[in-house]
Amino acid sequence: EYGLAQDDLIQLWMEMAASSLWRRNPQLWVLFDGRTFSRRYQRAWLEELCRREKQKCYFLHLTAAESTVRE
Fold first, then answer.
1. How far apart are CA 39 and CA 23, in angstroms?
2. Distance (Å, rounded) from C-alpha 50 to C-alpha 58?
3. Is 1 helix (H, G, I), strand (E, B) or coil?
4. Residue 1 has pLDDT above 90, yes or no
5. What single DSSP character describes residue 44?
6. 3-class secondary structure for 49-66?
7. Are 22 and 55 in contact (CB under 8 A)?
8. Tell me: the pLDDT tens digits for 24-63?
């Protein structure tokens, strides 16, 4: 299982990849998925990235019952 340090490192790599993609195609939609953005400070990093890259930032929070997830 990943710890916070690993999550932060992966987030940094994801942000670098998104920046590179947006520079090539500013109209591109980039979707970040996963627990990498489960903490408030991680979402704040993403919001700042979007501000720097002049991109809109949306958060979609999905939940489900444990039994549904296991199906």
1. 27
2. 10
3. coil
4. no
5. H
6. HHHHCCCCCCCCCCCCCH
7. yes
8. 999 999 988 776 777 889 889 999 999 999 999 998 888 8
Identify the residue whose tokens are 């919001």: 47
* Cβ atoms of residues 46 and 37 within 8 Å: yes
Question: Can you tell me the distance from the alpha carbon of 34 to that of 65, in angstroms, rounded to the nearest whole number?
Answer: 17
**CB 44 within 8 Å of CB 57:** no
Radius of gyration of the chain, Cα coordinates, nearest whole angstrom: 14
Is the CB of residue 3 less than 8 Å from the CB of residue 11?
no
Looking at residue 2, its pLDDT comes to 67
Length of the chain, in residues: 71
Could you identify the residue written with the tokens 């958060």? 59
pTM: 0.75
Q: Residue 31: helix, strand or coil by DSSP?
A: coil
